[in-house]
């Protein structure tokens, strides 16, 4: 009797632990643009901000839709409008008048 080989999942987004199977299933469910895939699977929302996973997901989406990656709409990056000093986040109950 031979041992059955357990298939290891292909990880697409390490930050959010999203697999190739997760991405393909979401596309089959009708999430056919990058923005809706981001919202469903949280790809690109981890610490790396999509540096690794977004290009992979774009290629997977293009392959599944039989399009060129250049044909897909890429969501705009939305950094903060103006930088916020870290002291704003670190101040716990301190008087706002202190600088």
Count of DSSP strands? 2
The proportion of strand residues reads: 5-15%
Q: Helical segment tally?
A: 4
CATH architecture: Orthogonal Bundle
Overall pLDDT confidence? 83
Global geometry: extended
Q: What is the CATH topology assignment?
A: Arc Repressor Mutant, subunit A
* Rg over alpha carbons: 19 Å
The succession of helices and strands, N to C, reads: EEHHHH
CATH top level class name: Mainly Alpha
CATH superfamily: BFD-like [2Fe-2S]-binding domain
Residue share in helix: 25-40%
Distance between the termini: 73 Å
Provide a short characterization of the protein structure.
This protein is mainly alpha-helical.
Question: Can you describe this structure?
Answer:
With 99 residues, this protein is mostly helical. It has one domain (11-90): BFD-like [2Fe-2S]-binding domain (Arc Repressor Mutant, subunit A). 35% of the residues lie in helices and 5% in strands. It has four helices and two strands, in the order ββαααα. A hairpin with a 4-residue loop joins strand 1 (11-13) and strand 2. Helix 1 (20-28) crosses helix 3 (53-65). It is extended and about 55 Å long.
List the helices and strands and how they pair.
Layout: E1 11-13, E2 18-19, H1 20-28, H2 34-41, H3 53-65, H4 86-90
Antiparallel strand pairs: 1-2
Helix pairs in contact: 1-3
Keywords:
99 residues, mainly alpha, Arc Repressor Mutant, subunit A, two-stranded antiparallel sheet, 2 strands, 35% helix
């Amino acid at each position: 009797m031979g041992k059955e080989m357990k298939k290891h999942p292909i990880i697409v987004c390490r930050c959010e632990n999203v697999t190739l199977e997760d991405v393909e299933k979401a596309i089959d469910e009708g999430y056919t643009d990058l923005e809706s895939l981001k919202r469903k699977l949280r790809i690109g929302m981890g610490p790396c901000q999509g540096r690794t996973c977004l290009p992979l997901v774009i290629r997977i989406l293009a392959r599944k839709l039989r399009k060129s990656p250049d044909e897909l709409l890429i969501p705009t990056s939305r950094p903060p409008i103006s930088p916020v000093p870290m002291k704003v986040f670190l101040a716990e109950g301190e008087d706002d008048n202190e600088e």
